[in-house]
User: Fold this.
Amino acid sequence: MQEKGTISIHTENIFPIIKKFLYSDNEIFLRELVSNASDATQKIKRLASLGQYNGELGELQVEVAFDEKKKTITISDNGLGMTAEEIKKYINQIAFSGATEFVEKFKDAKDANEIIGKFGLGFYSAFMVSEKVEIQTLSYQDGAEPASWICDGSTEFEIAKGTRTSRGTDVILYINADSEEFLSQYKLQEILDKYFKFLPTKLVFGTKTESEPDGEDKDGKPQYKSVEKENIINGAKPIWTLAPADLKDEDYLQFYKELYPFSEDPLFWIHLNVDYPFNLTGVLYFPKLKNDVEFQRNKIKLFSRQVFITDEVKDIVPEFLMLLHGVIDSPDIPLNVSRSFLQADGNVKKINSYITKKVAEKLAELFKKDRPAYEQKWNDIGIFVKYGMISEEKFYEKAKDFGLFKNTDNQYFTLEEYKEKVKAAQTDKDGNVVYLYTIDPAKQDAFIQSAKKKNYDVLLMDTPIDNHFVSHIENKLEKVQLKRVDADVTDKLIDKGEKLEHALSEDQTKKVKEIFEKAINKPAYQVNIEAMNPEELPVTVTMDEFMRRMKDMAAMGGGMSFYGNMPDSYKVAINGNHKLVSKILQAEDESTQAALAKQAFDLALLSQGLLTGADLTAFVNRSVSLI
Ligand SMILES: Nc1ncnc2c1ncn2[C@@H]1O[C@H](COP(=O)(O)OP(=O)(O)OP(=O)(O)O)[C@@H](O)[C@H]1O
Assistant:
C-alpha cells in the first residue's frame, strides 16, 4: 500500500495562510496536537463504554518527547488511532472535520459533544514549526493495518504502510530551523504547564529525578536516594468539573492557591455551571483587592474542555468583573479562538450576561444571609458593585438592593434605607433630598462637623470610582441631589428657604467685603458676606459642586477638558454674624483689620489643606507675632 496524492483544499497552498493568520503564537502547535491526542484517548474510552471496543484499554495517556539531535518532537497517544482511509478523510481533507463524522456516528451518546473537538485546522498548526510532519498510527479496529502519512508542508503527501505496533498515534514533527527554540526541556515544560495542567488524560513529558527516603545510615540518620519518575504535567485537580455539593471550602481555597500561589485567600467564590443554552463551568473568585489594580487584571483563565486557551477574557467577562480571578471552561469556545471570534460569537455575549447575573445573585445571597459579614467585605467588593452599577444597567437593577452607602460613622445603608434616614432633615425647599458626601474626611472635617451640628448625615465617597458613582446615582434616583460637604457653607448646602438676617448694615457689609478682598488679593477667590449662624466659622472657602465635579472628571480623563482648562475658582463666605467680623470693623487701623482678615482667611484655607508653601510660612510667622 503506497499512495501519493494531493491534499484537497481550494487554495493552492494553505500553509502560509495558516502560519500567518490563524495563529498569532506559534507555541500553540503543541496545544493543538496534545489536545488531539487527548481527544483520541477520550474517544477510545467512549467507544469501550459503548461496547464498540472490546480490547484492553490500558492506562490511557499522552506522551511528549523530543530529540535534540534528530530535531524532532513526538506526540504519542494510545487513543483510537486511524486507518489509512481515516487519515485521508480527517487529515487530508482539511476542510472536513473528523469530529463531524464522529458526532454523526455517536449522536445518541449523551455527552458525545464533550469528547469531540470542533471543526477546525488544529492539526495543520504543526507546520508552523515543522519542515516535515509524519504520522504513524494504528487504528483500534479489528484487523486494522498500521498506516503512515508524511508531508513536507507542500500540498503533496504520502500515505504508506506504517510501523506502529500498538493502538494509537505518534505525530512526529521535524522541527524547522526557525523553531529550534522548542527543542528544549525547559521550553516544552513551560508550554505544557501553561496549557495542560488540568488535561483530562494523563500527560507525560520524560522523567524527573526525585529524592525518596531510603532507610537510615549507620548512625541512625535518615538516608535518601534519587529515583527517576515519570514527569506528569497534569497533577492538579480541576475542581470546576466537580459538583459544588462534593466540594468543601478547603477545596476551593486549595485550588485558588494552586492557581495563584502568592495571593491572599479570596473573599468568596462562585461556582458556575450551565449546560443550556451554552456549556459553561468554572469557579470565579472575588480577590482581596490591592492598590496595584493593573497587576490584578487578566487573572481569569479560559479553558476549553480543560485545555487552557487564554487569559485574555475580555468580551466573555464583563468589564467590571475583570478583576475577578479563577477559571472558566466552555467547550463552545474553540481552541484556536481569536479576538474577532469572541466579539462576533453569540454564545460569548450570553456567557457575559450569565456571569453578570450569577455574580449579582451571589452578592444578593451574601447580603441576605449575613449582612454584618457582607458589610465587612464591602471595602473590597464595593468597587466591583459600584463599577457594575455604573456600567451595566441590568446589574444596576439587581444591585440597587445590595449596593451600600457608607457614612462617616461607619454605618451602612442600602439606597432605600438611606433615603428614609435623611429625608426628614435633608429635604430642600423644592422637595429634593440632598445627600452630603466627603471624599476626604480628614481634610473636610470642619465641614463634616458643621453638617453634623445641623443633624445632617455625611456619606463617605473616598474611592477612585466614587466620582462617577455619585453622578450616576444622582441620575438614577429621583429627586435626589448629591453635594460634597464643602460645596458651600453648611447653611446653604441644603436650601430650605429660611433666611437668616445678618447683623451688619449695608455700609458695614461693603466695608467688610473691601477689607477681605484687599487682604486676600487673589482674583480666583470671590468674597461674599453671608448671613450665617454665629456659631459657624468666620470664613469658609468652598468650590461650586458642579464646577468641581467637571474638573474632577477632566482630571480623570472624562472628556470635560473645557472645564479642566478653566482656572480654579473659589467662593469665600464671610460669616456676617460672627464675632470676629464685628471685631475687624472695630479695629483701630487698617493694618490690624487686614491682618485679622488675612488670618481668618488663612485659617479657612488651613482647615481644608489649601494652605501650602510660602503662604503657609507667612501664616505661621504672622500667627507667632499675633501671640
Ligand atoms: N492523535 C490522533 N488520534 C486520532 N485521530 C486524530 C489524531 N489527531 C488528529 N486526528 C483526527 O484528525 C482530525 C482533524 O484534526 P484537527 O486537529 O485538524 O481538527 P479537530 O481536532 O477536528 O478540530 P480542532 O483541532 O480545530 O479542534 C481530528 O478530528 C481526528 O479525527
